[in-house]
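Pair request: fold both.
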Amino acid sequence: MGDIIKKLILAVLVLFLLLVGCLNQQNAGLTNNKTNEKDQTNQDNTINAEPVKETETQLNLGESKDLGEIKTFTLKEGEICKENGKLVIRLFSTTWCPHCVWIKETFDSTVKEYVDAGKITVYHWELDTGDNTLTEQVESVVPESELAVYKEFNPKGSIPTFVFGCKYSRIGNGFESTQDLISEAKEFRTAIETLLQEA
């Protein structure tokens, strides 16, 4: 019995050390991957990959009133963000965040339908690489104007952060706890369609 307890304690200690090592490696990689620290404006101090619970998605930035079919986003009063007359949708993520990886393909494929139809402009910024994953070219720096949007809607710097038309925003995934990517895509479409009607 004593040997089993010793083995369990040793196993827990090893797991703890591995976890600490992974977290330190992620933080070191994030800092070392920066090509231009002046343009990145201290992102290594602001990015937090902690998951956000579905009930925590309503921020002080917007109203927590009922948004109908849009259940996991917060509404912020003001003008809809446009670029060249088109609604602008943004996702801020990193390559190492498991929550960002979980939503990436669903987000990218859903918004691409609207981009291909010429209805919206979309940016999916990976903050650790500086790349907009929705372009063929590989960018290395997130523009200051885009970082300003990220900081406005997410002062604590968590990821993933979604900003739809500067009206609807969300920190974290809405349906990850139930592994429901279909509901994620449906909510993205509902928010986009609602904003297109308002624009």
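--- second member of the pair ---
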Amino acid sequence: MKKHRTKQNHDVRFHDLRHSAATILLSIGVPAKVVQEILGHSQISMTMDIYSHVLPVMQQQAMDKMNDISVVC
């Protein structure tokens, strides 16, 4: 697997960049189905199994948004 070195001499693999991109996309609210398609996973379950660590943050953000709506109403 091809590796690249950062200025701090850390190895960065393409897979690391792919994983980071998927995590960032999910954390900013891009739908999981869209991330699945970008990554080329055949099943949404594969995407969610790998990136489920992002879900608690997403759940908290959803609850915060619901709270904002209830304050306005």
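Observation on the second member. The chain is about 65% helix and 10% strand.
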